[in-house]
Amino acid sequence: MSDNEISYPSSLGRSTRTTITLFDEQIQDLMGNVGFGELAFWLAARRRPTPEQVTLFEACLVALADHGFTPTAIATRMTYLSAPDSIQGALASGLLGGGSRFLGVTEDCGSYLAAAVDASGLGPDSTDDDWDELARRLVTEARETKRFIPGLGHPNHKDGDPRTPRIYEIAEQTGTYGPHLALFAAIGRVHPDIMGRTLPLNGAGVCGAALADLGLPVDLLRGFALLARTAGLVGQIAEEKLHPMAMDAYLHIDRHSTYIDPATDPQ
Amino acid sequence: MSDNEISYPSSLGRSTRTTITLFDEQIQDLMGNVGFGELAFWLAARRRPTPEQVTLFEACLVALADHGFTPTAIATRMTYLSAPDSIQGALASGLLGGGSRFLGVTEDCGSYLAAAVDASGLGPDSTDDDWDELARRLVTEARETKRFIPGLGHPNHKDGDPRTPRIYEIAEQTGTYGPHLALFAAIGRVHPDIMGRTLPLNGAGVCGAALADLGLPVDLLRGFALLARTAGLVGQIAEEKLHPMAMDAYLHIDRHSTYIDPATDPQ
Amino acid sequence: MSDNEISYPSSLGRSTRTTITLFDEQIQDLMGNVGFGELAFWLAARRRPTPEQVTLFEACLVALADHGFTPTAIATRMTYLSAPDSIQGALASGLLGGGSRFLGVTEDCGSYLAAAVDASGLGPDSTDDDWDELARRLVTEARETKRFIPGLGHPNHKDGDPRTPRIYEIAEQTGTYGPHLALFAAIGRVHPDIMGRTLPLNGAGVCGAALADLGLPVDLLRGFALLARTAGLVGQIAEEKLHPMAMDAYLHIDRHSTYIDPATDPQ
Amino acid sequence: MSDNEISYPSSLGRSTRTTITLFDEQIQDLMGNVGFGELAFWLAARRRPTPEQVTLFEACLVALADHGFTPTAIATRMTYLSAPDSIQGALASGLLGGGSRFLGVTEDCGSYLAAAVDASGLGPDSTDDDWDELARRLVTEARETKRFIPGLGHPNHKDGDPRTPRIYEIAEQTGTYGPHLALFAAIGRVHPDIMGRTLPLNGAGVCGAALADLGLPVDLLRGFALLARTAGLVGQIAEEKLHPMAMDAYLHIDRHSTYIDPATDPQ
After folding, report:
1. Which of C175, C201, C217 finishes a domain?
2. How far apart are CA A129 and CA A119, in angstroms?
3. What is the C-alpha separation between A134 and A138, in angstroms, rounded?
4. Based on the domain organization, do C43 and C112 belong to the same domain?
5. Are residues D113 and D211 in the same domain?
6. Is A138 part of any domain?
7. Which residues pair with D14 in a beta bridge?
């Protein structure tokens, strides 16, 4: 490829001397007419969502925005304590905890359900019995291979996560209920008989199912959890400015440090 | 302070076995009833915005979300190319460019205007003549001290940034127009006479003025620019998956590298 | 656990009013007597390395420090262009590319070899024939399962990576040659017959083998590649200050952007 | 500039099919012959340091590598707890705290001293009396403008930081003592009379002075503090694997959270 043939394709932001466009729409036409959540959906899915889809999408973002003093919030506050001149660093520091353990369930659950739905041949016309049968197969397989089903169980909300029924309610009200939420509900119905105990469908998981039903790329669902969390982390920084706690937490940890000798340390 | 007296204050996310709350509101009541932009405002300002305030706020977020192949977007795509397993790393990598030069104008402009407004004694009842007088003083001072006024001028949109009139229009329609936008407009009116040339009021600057008028903490305005940009960067990653360009750009750079000898290099 | 029983164990840095210690060594005794690479090894392995181990360890760090305009270096330079006030952000931005594709080979290769060595029962007294037999089994298995062997092959150095023979030379000279390097060499000997073509043992892979032979934790080898790369990225920032190229690269990319319409875009 | 004229200058890593070079040196010649600290110096300063310079440089890196449970170490451990799959994210998260407050003193002190030395006309032949006179002027000016002198004072080591005399000792032994260390020492001598109390010269500050004496770019000194800290953070992650504390610290913080009502909150 000669240099003169180089081209970098994009549908996103462009500008000329007099215009700024996104997807070839004038920015001034988007401003005031397209909501921020709506634009985030559009940028990722490359199609403008319906108002009903926006409602479900924003409900997921609200559900995932903040959970108080999580490890990610603590990382952001510690970084802000150390480097208050760099808000971008404090935000990035917290987002970097959006990995496999605490914030990855949304993507893991959405991807898991999408793979199962795609392989099943089931679709919008399938019945609850169809979904229950598929769910029974999946739960049995998970038990036999000693794998967890993403989105099932919660360390705290053992009797039910308040976000889960609300997402189902909104999906039904807005007509956005689809196969991923259907399969996730079926897993909730059938797993107690097979596993011998009842686990809650958690909020991160149900958001993964909902985002998959909205047609968002399932290998990018973590990105939406991170977008939601960015709003939470801005709030954490705003609160740290008003009611600082990071210094106290740091001093608590430092003062309760105890020495262990590596030489006698059973590794 | 004894350990038993330690407490870490927060108004943000908390949970019990059966509830999740933000600002003592049940999460299920927020979901579906509070938009994502609205929640982001609430989390940072610690008060629920009016619908009119949400409209102006989201218009700013839309204005700032994406500008195509900026250095931050390129950083995100390069990081995604290197470490596709870690979307959080690719997002964080791009956000880290949200510093003084390319993304800091929003905060710089809002802070600059807020300091001037606070020191002036002017307020909602002041007239355009009052604002023009203050603006004349500021522009003259900037010229004499050879300082830039944040938000004034744009490398590309020399005849006007399309976002600027739109923000003024929305602020007037929603009744959210306030002293920061008033002073910024006055700077736009008076500077050509004093400086001998006409510079545009840029979009990042006008968003800083609007966010300050909304009562958001001016030392945190960069946080909102970063929140907006997070949506853009998720879109950049989604597009890189479909239409990759980072490998081509990397190879272009690598192939056009030329060696310079530090020994003979005039430093 | 009551608060009064809380304790956070550590062997690393501690300080009193008059002392600073690492592993209970006075910092002033370490300074000038322990090299930086030596300390990095000690901090991670929790035991002081021998001078011979330090030589091999630092040779690996030197091998991995910089490779010019890689995607990680470009990310660092783009972030520095955008936010020159935050060197930590520019460094972090580059390190975040240290993931599965470009910088992960060191850890992947070390872990792969360690698992094979551990399962094999082979050890320091095994012969080249023993290692060849094990290697034949591994390469055959990789071919049958269509998996890559980490560290085998290089997009550029198809006839051999100059770092590989040098690591073997240093390992032999310093008496630090061990089972992981032995197995990696055997893979180099036996794979052409089985695979029908000759691939080079690459430098990132041989460093993974060497670091595993040094007894460093194999699930942390990426950390050493990142430490090495930090030195390279500091160099990249120093050079960007003297001979900036990020603005030119950004403008090149921006100017060669071409619009694609998502509506007609075959996804 | 036409595309065919584009070139990106660099003296750092390059490779051909058969070679890898840094500064036009073959990588295999550097490996085993150049230490890691030496290479880091070379990459940043663009000239190979003498062995004496390497000794002082590595002593600074050792002094700055780890300080136990600092906010940056806590951020790294929290991020590792959340996203154990991404070591690069955990490292980056900690480095992002390398800003103005906790890790910036090295650069602030080096820059401050360099500006004063450059403006003074003093040099290698100046006497202690010359430096004392300059120091008296600086301390007086700082007192009058109510500014802090970077590197002066320590929250903990009020009677002296053990790293400071050691750096002076090494600088004298290696013949690398220069004007920045001379001025810093003078500040230590003269400030008690002017300020009415005795503050220690802290370790981060003395390292800034030493790094400036080594001729490293003073606007990049934070980069060396970050390089040193990277080794410390790899050690923190290694220890978190063996002796986890992040979950306990997170639970402690979460359990001691108390709600504050924003409505009645005096802001």
Report:
1. C217
2. 17
3. 6
4. no
5. yes
6. yes
7. D21
From C217, C236, C259, the end of a domain falls on C217
Largest CA distance in chain A: 70
ipTM for the predicted complex: 0.96
Q: Does pTM top 0.95 for this prediction?
A: yes
Nearest to C262 among A6, A47, A96 (CB): A47
Q: Which of D96, D156, D236, D247 to mutate to test the interface with A (most CBs of A within 10 A)?
A: D96
Token readout for A21 is 């466009």
- Domain containing A19 equals 11-48
Q: What is the number of structural domains in chain A? A: 2
Nearest to A177 by CA among A82, A91, A52, A78: A52
Among D2, D11, D95, most B C-beta atoms within 10 A, so best to mutate, is: D11
**Nearest of B267, A156, A24 to residue D216 by alpha carbon:** B267
Residue given tokens 């997009």 in the structure block: C155
Our CA-based measurement puts residue C78 at a distance from the nearest CA of chain B, in whole angstroms, of: 5
Note whether residue A56 is domain-resident.
no
- CA B159 – CA C11 distance, rounded (Å): 62
CATH number of the domain at B135, please. 1.10.230.10
| Shared domain check, D206 and D115 | yes
Compare CB distances from C227 to D10, D160, D234 and report the shortest one's residue: D234
Whether D57 is covered by a domain: the verdict is no
Looking at the fold, whether A120 and A18 belong to one and the same domain comes out as: no
Same domain, A113 and A39: no
Q: Is C208 within the bounds of a domain?
A: yes
pLDDT tens, N- to C-terminus, chain D (267 residues): 455 678 999 999 999 999 999 999 999 999 999 999 999 999 999 999 999 999 999 999 999 999 999 999 999 999 999 999 999 999 999 999 988 787 889 999 999 999 999 999 999 899 999 999 999 999 999 999 999 999 999 988 988 999 999 999 999 999 999 999 999 999 999 999 999 999 999 999 999 999 999 999 999 999 999 999 999 999 999 999 999 999 999 999 999 999 999 988 765
